[in-house]
Amino acid sequence: MTGWQTLLYKEVLRFWKVAFQTIAAPVLTSVLYMLIFGHVLEDHVKVYDQVAYTSFLLPGLIMMGVLQNAFANSSSSLVQSKIMGNLVFLLLTPLSHWSWFVAYVASSVVRGLAVGMGVFLITGWMVNIQFIYPLWILAFAIMGAAMMGALGVIAGLWAEKFDQMAAFQNFIIMPMTFLSGVFYSIHSLPAFWQQLSHLNPFFYMIDGFRYGFFGQSDVSPWVSLSVVATALAVVSSVTLYLLRTGYKIRS
Amino acid sequence: MTAISFQSVSKAYPSPKSSKSNASGGTFLALDGVSLDIQEGEFFGLLGPNGAGKTTMISVLAGLTRATSGKVSVLGHDVQSDFAAARRSLGVVPQELVFDPFFNVRELLRIQSGYFGIKNNGAWIDELLESLGLSDKANANMRQLSGGMKRRVLVAQALVHKPRVIVLDEPTAGVDVELRQTLWQFIAKLNKQGHTVLLTTHYLEEAEALCGRIAMLKRGQMVALEKTSVLLKSATSQVLRFKLDGELPAEVAALARVTGRVVQLPVHNAAEIESHLATLRMAGLVAEDVEIRQADLEDVFLEVMNRQQSHAGAQA
Question: What SS3 string covers chain B?
């Protein structure tokens, strides 16, 4: 194995060794959302006129699990290594900033997809769900997870304490994912909030992902794809720059 | 070939006191124009009190910190512009007892090998485990290991890629006698095989026994750089050593190295010995087990450090 492959392997092994906490727990959370919201709203809400609410909700929940866990993976791994001090073993190696980037982002994608798959396997049978465009599903899941993995690297480099990381997660990541249309179609929102939702990149990730299931979405999947690809490119550039300059890790 | 080279290296940190009160921000020089060349195959000691800049030098060498000015290279590879080659040549045992709680010892060593692009490193890993007395801990999680065992793992991690230059930052701090002996035997063996060793330590008898050359660092400046034998001969004094019950008179206490009942005083001639003993007699004290011995590295170290102190005092 070359250097970046080892780091990727190590990062995957790291979350896999505590899979109960890193995969099972978020899967359970999503399943609870599914059961409760599905029960409360199933008979009252129809989206896109013919899609049952639970069928609509499931892709949103899967994507939310993918995104949040991709972010959690790289960010918590880095901040832990920084606080424990064992990041030094990585800093002493000849690994380039590209190796760091690829390994941390790819392991985050793996964790995100593992959680998404877990949610689907447990709740998929409860609802009537289609896969009209599987490639769109895969493309949005991977790109979204990669962007969140890269964002997690930025947060992990920036945060010096666990509470800073918690603040980043609770005040930025959580609101942006919750307000991205996981639980609703933004067409049901007042005009102002609809406009505002269009500024949230997470909205495009979820909307595009959902398009892959139903062939219907709030905006064109191509628009979503461009937005997500742009966001991924911007966040990745920042991440690579910070890794190359050793932001907060090489003084 | 030059294994480690520092050329006029300085490292400035923003001074913590002035950074808040003063917008322009003062700086604190952790390293102040340090130049040093260590040849391949040397066993080199870097000494100095806490805060002298030893760890900063090692951090700059390892690429953990960037020098503010000057050039640093490992076997001719610049640690910034050619960092990959420099880091491949370098194995660093960090001072802090850090570890990754997710893995067991063998996993960690395999992973560390992989970072350097080394596959199938099993034979060398086994040899490291054996030489460092870790064989029966190979499958133990890092969390289960005692401090001394964790220290051994740190050493193994630093050596996993067979670096030609080995840097040990206070490897024996808080470590029992057995591990010290195992460690030094192993490091001495590697040194004989041609590996360069750079050691920082506060145990001066270790440095005296192991290091061929020694540099002393104080407040970021190099204040001595000599062969160990030359340094030992450079001592201007011998040592008057005795045991004492009671308080040392102030004029003697200022010069003395006191460990419990044992008092050691630098002396330059017979008259000085007489005068010290007379001072004690006048104070009504009785010195027991009086002897005169040659200066050791600790005496030289204190002499060098105090000389600098009085210099600094005179300038101020």
Answer: CEEEEEEEEEEEEECCCHHHHCCCCCEEEEEEEEEEEEECCCEEEEECCCCCCHHHHHHHHHCCCCCCEEEEEECCEECCCCHHHHHHCEEEECCCCCCCCCCEHHHHHHHHHHHCCCCCCHHHHHHHHHHCCCHHHCCCEHHHCCHHHHHHHHHHHHHCCCCCEEEEECCCCCCCHHHHHHHHHHHHHHHHCCCEEEEECCCHHHHHHHCCEEEEEECCEEEEEEEHHHHHHCCCCEEEEEECCCCCCHHHHCCCEEECCEEEEEECCHHHHHHHHHHHHHCCCCCEEEEEECCCHHHHHHHHHHHHHHHHHHHC
B64 to chain A: closest CA residue: A250
Does the beta carbon of A122 lie under 8 angstroms from any beta carbon of chain B?
A: no
pTM of the model: 0.89
Average pLDDT over residues B23-27: 65
Tell whether A251 is covered by a domain: no
Kindly state whether residue A85 falls inside one of the protein's structural domains. yes
* Mean of pLDDT over chain B: 88
> Does A69 fall in a domain?
yes
Residue among A73, A82, A93 with most chain B CBs within 10 A, to mutate: A93
- ipTM of the predicted structure? 0.89
Q: Total structural domains in chain A?
A: 1
Residue B116: its chain A contacts at CB < 8 A? 3, 93-94
Mean pLDDT for back-to-back runs of 10 residues, chain A (251 residues): 90 94 93 88 74 88 95 96 94 95 98 96 86 94 97 96 91 89 85 89 94 91 96 97 93 83
